[in-house]
Batch of 2 targets.
Target 1
Amino acid sequence: MRETFVATTTALLDEDPRTALVLADISVDAFAPALRRHPDRVLNVGIREQLMAGVAGGLALTGLRPYVHSYAPFLVDRAYEQIKLDLGHQDVGAVLVSIGASYDASDVGYTHHSPGDVALLDTLEGWTVHVPGHRDEVPALLRAAARVDDRVYVRLSTQENRAPRPVSPRLQVVRRGPAGAPLVLAVGPMLDPVLAATADLGVTVAYTSTPRPLDTAGLRALATAEIVVVEPYLAGTTSRMAAAALADLPHRELHLGVRRAETRHYGSVADQARSHGLDPAGLRASITAFLG
Amino acid sequence: MTVIAERGNPARQLVTRLAGDEKHAPSAYSTLEVLWVLYDRVLRVTPATVDEPDRDRFLLSKGHGPAAYYAVLAATGFIPESWLDDLGGRNSRLGLHPDRTLIPGVEIGSGSLGHGLGLAVGTALGLRAQGFLDSHTYVLLGDAELDEGANHEAIAYAYAARLGGLTAIVIDNQSATHGWPGGIAGRFVGWSASVVDGYDHDAIAHALTSHDGSRPHVVVATVAPKGR
């Protein structure tokens, strides 16, 4: 996904003089050709993530469309107040593009993990969040963000599904269960693990790569008595919105995602997923226990 | 301070109309003369040009105590003088911290310290990227505000980017808890610097307009210590 982001953003810089890119040393080498062609619009501020967000706010105040990129813990967690005030409070937008979401940096430890990025942005108003499940979903999301001035977060991941899905703000049914079957909603790269975990469970599986704003109309249309949300960030991040959307419908909800406790071990992304119960076996165990 | 402002400042009378932010009153008065000089003699922006893309920008980073700012905006026609009579009221556009979406001519909302300089760096970069090379960005900070670490990210990068279109003004009322040993200007490594009497209009105007534009510039305007 990172390579797709670099290629698409480089093309946007060539095509649209409104496009700017702000980096904090991460991915600078990949953008070297773009920097040579557009030295006034490709800006590497160094390891200064608070400044990175502030610069983006200033660029947007002059009418440019800044893309801002780093590892999720530095892009969102570290610069949260700049995101809140230098973008939101100024009523300007930017496109934040992260890598290293959740535990993608699996072997370096918690300092480089960011399971709470989407939850943090959920405290703020007006953010669209894209969580592509496949690299081929990335270009359309980035190009759509170039056409508006809104606040957009694109959460790239090293985990991805085997095949891309159509890019849409609406929930998509990937596998339909029998009438009244429980609904399992998978966000981004959680789709393949969910499909594997529920292959013989008789549930409806839906997918979204745009969890914010949540397609509440689509959720209500698909909702049954039992709903499971599987998201690749902090477990329960979507629970408030789902509960509000379905407040008048009798139902039970289970929210699966990254657990709050630090795992305090290294290893692969698969190792981390297993520890958080987000591998197919872990998901199956949680879902079957919930459904009874 | 021994130097008295030589030119009139009509905002000085207007600022007395603002009541309700006594906590930040020293902060407001410390900026009054610099703000007047900026709007009276330096900035290329008027109420008629607040939306022109090539206008000069002024960013009040030190959003605490904006009474002087509001008074200057009223004296220069950006806002009606009548707005000054309801500072912080439920239906007022003028809060104890300014909001850019409510006040014509205000470039940023501020109040939380340490945000304006980063925004100013981005603004100056954006103007340069769009070819507005005659447009200048000014940002006003307080000496205590420099305690915020985010400023120092911006100071270092502004020099690295050779942002000649950026001028920072630091109002030094000696309110930083631990002071700035060695002087404030020395913290702006690589920048050109002027230290002036914060009440001397001619000296302020000269400092704001006399730099060579090859790198960012800082003007430290010394005023009476807070509380005196």
Target 2
Amino acid sequence: MRAEFRAGERVRVRAVDPAGHTRVPRYVRGHVGRIVECQGRWPLADECAAGVAEPRVEPVYTVAFAAGDLWGEGGHEVTVDLWESYIERAGKDGA
Amino acid sequence: MSRVNDVGGQGGFGALEIEADEPPFHADWEARVYALNSVLVRNGVYRLDEFRDAVERMPPRAYLAASYYERWLYAIETLLAGRGPAGEG
């Protein structure tokens, strides 16, 4: 099964706030970033933490965010590794 | 609810103290806690993600007052109390 997203695509982090363990830092939720590369497929941490016997295995992407988008300042990028179900394709206008 | 551990990018905690030539452990008990967790994960007593979850479920006030390896020890105790050798009998 191929990864859904390609390098350079713009994706939005789903603005969810799950009750249990997740690997989505609060500071990127709802923000738009750019796919840098896929890091292969890995068991979903949220389900592993919840004790799911056969957790979903999904592509994990390195996603780059403009620091200015996250913090309102800074000219650098922040990269976060995110499982595929954490993100969705962003519209051309970033919507 | 976002948990107490999720403080990335959040201000108000003061400057990070960077220790020159910082040793891996500041006390022998810390190394033992590290080794104990490694053995438990490798032997499948619990998964690494379950361990992280247990750290995050620490009561917020205690979490913020605890050192790094105190949090690890809390998580190990929590997980072993629920299952495995320490939970039996």
